[in-house]
Design a protein that fits this description.
This protein has 207 residues and is an all-alpha fold. It has one domain. Helices cover 71% and strands 0% of the residues. It contains 10 helices and no strands. Helix 1 packs parallel to helix 5 and helix 6 runs antiparallel to helix 7.
Amino acid sequence: MTIYVALGLAALLSYLLGSISFAIVVSRLRGLADPRSYGSNNPGATNVLRSGDKLAAALTLFGDAAKGLVAVLLAAAFAQQWPAPQQQLLIITAGVAVFFGHLLPVFFRFQGGKGVATAFGVLLGFDPTMGLMVGLIWLLVAKLSRISSLAALCAAVAAPLLTFWRHGAEAMLWAVIVIAILLIARHQSNIIQLLTGKEKAFKKPSE
């Protein structure tokens, strides 16, 4: 198998894995409304939590993060037969493709989520330490501000900086930049709300 065929397979299979929207799948299994029909209309863990089903939200978060991590780890295992530069190319291709699949899932009419959990899983696969650092930034901002979108945007800005700090201007950096740009773009409406002071802090279902 040539590296070009391998890259194509990695991109296709990772995209299909990313297209499994756990927010929608879990909601159906739990008998909940489609997360695209209430709240922020976003098929993600934060919006699923608005249904009041904490287990569904936790399963969504775990599933969306896990698919990002699994795609990268599978690509890394498969890439062992090639030299290091081609290994990295396969790995980052899988990471970007699984993230893109989450944003535009072929199984759900291309109506995907904003990609925060999946991006976290991808970053963990790229570099566990870096992924945990980005996750900690998200957690701290979310805890202090109680605004999920602000936490996501801060994490998205931090991710390329941390990647450059740990890996320099390698190919991984450009993959992380692409993911960060796409994630920020998906938060366009949230950015407008933040700038106008209209973005509300997230409230628990009981509040």
